[in-house]
Amino acid sequence: MKRIGNKIIDWIDERYDLTPVRKLLKHKKVPSHKYSAWYYMGGVTLFLFLVQLFTGILLLLYYRPGEESAYESVRFIVTEVKFGWLIRNVHSWSANLLVFFAFLHMFSVFFSKAYKKPRELTWVTGFIILVFTLAFGFSGYLLPWNELSFFATKVGTDIVGVIPIIGEPLRNILRGGEDVTGATLSRFFGIHVAILPAIFTMFLSLHLLFIQRQGMHDPEHFKNLPEEKKKYIPFFPDFALKDFLLWLVVFNILIFLALYFPWELGNKADPFASAPKGIRPEWYFMFMFQTLKLLPAHILFIEGELFGVLVFGVAGFIWMMIPYIKIKNKSDWKVQPLTVIGIVVVAFIVIMTILGYIL
Amino acid sequence: MLLDRRKFLNVLLGLGTFGGVVAIFYPVFSFLIPPKSAEPKVNSVKAGTASELPTNSSKIVKFGRKPVILIKTEEGQYKALSATCTHLDCIVQYKQDTKQIWCACHNGTYDLNGRNISGPPPKPLEEYEVKIIKDEIVITKLG
Amino acid sequence: MRKSFFYLPIYALALFLTIGFYDGAEQKNKTAQNSKEDHCVSCHKENDMMPKGFSENDVHRHAELSCSGCHGGDPSSDDESIAMSPSKGYRGVPKKKDIPQFCGKCHSNINIMRVYQPRIATDQVSQFYTSMHGKKLLQGDVNVADCTSCHTAHNILPAKDPRSTVYALNVPPTCNKCHGDKELMKKYNLPSNQLEEYSKSVHGNELLNKKDIGAPACNDCHGNHGAMPPGLTSVSYVCGMCHINNLQYFNATKMARAFEKQDFHGCEQCHGNHGVQKPSDNMVGVGKESICVDCHNEGDKGYATAKSIKISLDKLSDLYNLAETKLNEVHQKGMNEVEISFLLQDAKQDLIQSRTLVHTFDTVKVNSKTKDGVAIASNALAMAEKQINDYYTRRNGFLAATLAFLLLVVALYFKIKDIGKKNS
Asked: Of A334, C27, C270, C316, which is least surrounded by CB within 10 A?
């Protein structure tokens, strides 16, 4: 096995000179410390994205966008196509896990302050990727064209409409019309399988390129260690194999979830039926949804919903710009102000999400 | 026979990799093979050839979950109606002598447009559209 | 400017007065019109002497046939001696015996009735006199039903109106007003539990609980005005109005002939009359609940036929139930039950038809139908079992895949450890 492998590598080396690749693999190393486990989060997120890409392409072979065929084609996939149930459920579960790990990865980077110079753009591109991941989730959710997804899309796109001046035109562009219809489905399909993947790939490539170029961030406590105490493990093969190991475990969990907790088909969307009780968005939008629900109808002279949307918009922007914002460390504080902000944000998201389900 | 540790480990690794690859690619390749009914029957159903259906006769066809009665009248016209009686859900039949649709359960009668004309049925039968495309009978939902 | 302000209210006032006067005049006209016909109503209303159960919805009132339309007299006069004078045609309240003629004055005359409803029947009175109610009434019996007993006197509504006492859903309680009165019925040697029985029957349940007006009420089997219990030979024909196959099959059998000879009442003999229940398969055969063994004994041909028909029915019925249970399991497991459910619809049809064919008392005919049903139900059962197997196969496949991954993970873990050791 090894001999054949070496022969192939030699063949490529002769033609394309793999020296820079060899150098990178030989020298790239990853710090090994108490919190090294968090280094894997980005890789897991990437893996889940690749699963999405792969299962998404497979689903594309049978899915048919369009009011009259979307739901039926999904039903066809899960009942008639061999292993269609598996591919569809893996796709649905992986989407949710992807969002979860993306947030986890982002917060781990935040709390270890890895976004600081020189890695500001890695953070910015990462934030953009996170937003795109949510957009993937939102657009993909409509595609099975069932009751829940229809109304979730209606509610979600309604919120866009509250922005003054540009809100309504923007909403109509998203919806392909005034209401959520087959036109919306076509549009979301195009967005989900073509527009988003194209732009996402661009930003993802930049994000990965930056990481390759700059290597892993050394956390504070690691930086302050004397040189000989700093432990590293080589990226290849050690870290890469550990990464792969974790990917296998995550993959196994994924197919377990797909089999034992299958996604429902639901009822076909009927634009003329009234919304079923307890309609709510997917869990990763829940905290925003719940916040908007709790805001009073008017705050000063601004409508409550609009206020909420604006606050989230501004907050998101600030969050993206964190690497450029200077918050001084207070020497007498046990927990630094920046960390406090981070904890507050995490707590807010978690509490609002829980409230969204129990209220 | 003692295998040295490294070799043993490599064998295990090889087996595991092989197993893993099969576990992934077997479902994927099976997925790619088109199933028996190559596409989802959405809003239309094929119901055999027009030349094979004699005039003044009928047959029951499956439309999704629902039975539909397809009738070829004496004049050669095609009618497709829901075959579930609107009274108590028995399957209706076409009577060749009276040329009406009849439910044997409680003697309910419908005309060829599905209108309930006698007996207990409270509502007419739902109509479907019939198209003949190259001698193939295709039944679709109305509207 | 100021001058027009002054004159404006005057013009407005003039306008108001004109309109008011006009309106008032119209109202007066209307009352004048009304008062042309309704001194009867206004006077009786004033003195609180309206007939019991009077309703403005009454169909005769709507057709502008006020009191005088039936009772005669002159409604344009508010003087009682003129309004209720026999010279003006006043007939007063008719005696019970005379009520059919009283109503029949119009209702038996097509020339009068066609003005209001061109297609209405005019044979109610003649039919009535053929019924027990009519016959007894002519003999002077004051306890039997007359027109008003069922239709009421002053709250008459068309039978299609859901508020009517003779609307399908209301017919059983209307008949029961007298026929449920034990003391009254004793005088005629009639039972008084018909409504009770009927309410528990399959027809009563459909009509009274499920509000299905396709189900028979009293008048559908007994007739309306010519109400009589169905004659001995005609019970089957009455049932056969809806249960047509059962009638046709039964009438062609030797059993029908034998029933006639024994003065048996056709369908009623096995199924009962008012309390008819949804039949059970156990009514056929030679078991405890079987009706066949009421006449047939072991050794005779009928006994053997009954036994074999029951076996045939049971075969299909058991298989169908089994297939249905499996279908539910498939559904509950989240697997695809669409095709299976469609097949079972067909098997159910065959089962229903087999049960109807019991009335041929012909084993061959029943067997041929149950055979069809068994084939379909077997197919459905096989499909259901395949779906259930697939469900477990998926789980087994997952287990196998997990084991493969587990092997890989463990091997990889040790490999990584080895490499780590090598590096240090």
From this structure: A334
